[in-house]
Amino acid sequence: MANADCIVIQGSNMAEAHPVGFQWVTEAKKRGARVIHIDPRFSRTSALADKYVPIRAGSDIVFLGALIRWVIENDAYFAEYVQAYTNAATIINEDYRDTEDLDGLFSGFDKDSKTYDQTSWAYEIDPETGRPATDPTYEHPRTVFQILKRHYSRYTPELVEQMCGIKREDFEYVARSITQNSGRERTTCFAYAVGWTQHSMGTQFIRTAAILQLLLGNMGRPGGGIMALRGHATIQGASDIPTLFHLLPGYLPMPKAGTHDTLDQYLGAVGDKKKKGFWANGDAYAVSLLKSWWGDKATPENDFAYDYLPRINGPHGTYQSCMLMLEDKVDGYFLLGQNPAVGSANGRMQRMAMSHLKWLVVRDFNMIESATWWKEGPEIDTGELRTEDIGTEIFFMPAANHTEKAGTFTQTQRLVQWRHQAITPPGDATSDLEFLYDLGNRIRAKLADSTDPRDRPLLDLTWDYPVDEHGEPDASAVLAEINGFHLDGPNKGEPLANFNEMRADGTTSGGCWIYTGVFADGINHAANRKPGQEQDTAAREWGWAWPANRRMLYNRASADPQGKPWSER
User: What span, in angstroms and rounded, lies between the C-alpha atoms of 220 and 226?
Assistant: First the structure.
């Protein structure tokens, strides 16, 4: 971002919500970069920007679409970049129909299932080469470029005025700013936060911005891209070692029922040996993960305990869970660092859903609304719910804050940093690590004599971390387990140095392949703290970045087709 010549902040109050990151905006501005803030609300970010453009909430996709139209109509796209690094010249199947042909729908829509069959969206195949057909002149009406041009032709400056409430001169100011600051010598970046991600059309906002940035040649280049500004210091970490229902650690997919019923089926889907890049060794990452979780109980004979993994059979996010609660299909619910009673969309539905539970565990610093809705919620005030009729048993468990526990956080640039414990949690407060470790021990003790096969995944877990005098598990031991170990051979017992050492034969373990190396040589590299002035600009000795402590990742588009930098700057 510090290398950008123009910065567009949209869906974020970056100056106040992300002040550390905003320093790079100010650094860029000192160099002469233009800063534009597009937001429904005037904030400190607006005050510090060169231009504030007010926008009607939820209309971002119209504004971005109009910018795409403006770029194409004015031939302001970076032609050499678009030709080399996008699919603009690729020809689409002749059966494809766009929204202007089908009254707002794309071809392949099934009214009953309300899903798309994407067959007609495929590329047309050249019979001579067997590869997707292309037209480098973009004249063929079914090139991606021409389809894009037709699709966005409706997004006019007049529509922007009508839908977004943005004056034409303000729209054109933004359009000129981003095009004049894009191309071979200059780059523009977009930055967004929860103003986009939490919107019902957030995915479409971000994808549209990506199309715009590809046309301008700003993806994969210094000072370009689309910056996701996270709402928490370790949102990246919560994706890496995920709190997401469809992922396993390191972005391995969750097995799907009926598709990945066997280990071979799963590994075939995860790691295609014909592919280049990281995922060619996906089988080693997956097997090492299974060995990390189930140790000696994961053997080649039982497919490394693959059957212990649950299967997903559809979406299992918070809103799907909420709907199942309303149908009395969910007995219990854990809330750790979440407050859906007021912090999720449709708070009323969330509160009503929790009233259908048998039990609810809330862990937080304070007695939040998700712990008190049963006596102080809006539905209690209106009489829609009565405290005496609610059967949910609620357990409030005080949690330690970030100064009261040790562990890592991983920020947007993939930098894993160790947080030392400063003080002991007060009273009954505990870290999430201690709470979950203790809960696991209690459940395992209750199931110790069980012969039910469904209990084996819990009983066979590797669950033996060292604890201190207060009962707090050693967080660095957990990080070492995540890093992984050699389980056999001359290096048996030693930490893995990097993910390339992982094997699919059960001779290595590792709780998250992208973090392998963070504990290389038995050293907690996340705790590295060598000051920047004592090392080079890559700062490889401050914390540790995944993968393999690589601080900068540029893709092929960062250089021209001849392999030379787009700009000598």
Answer: 10
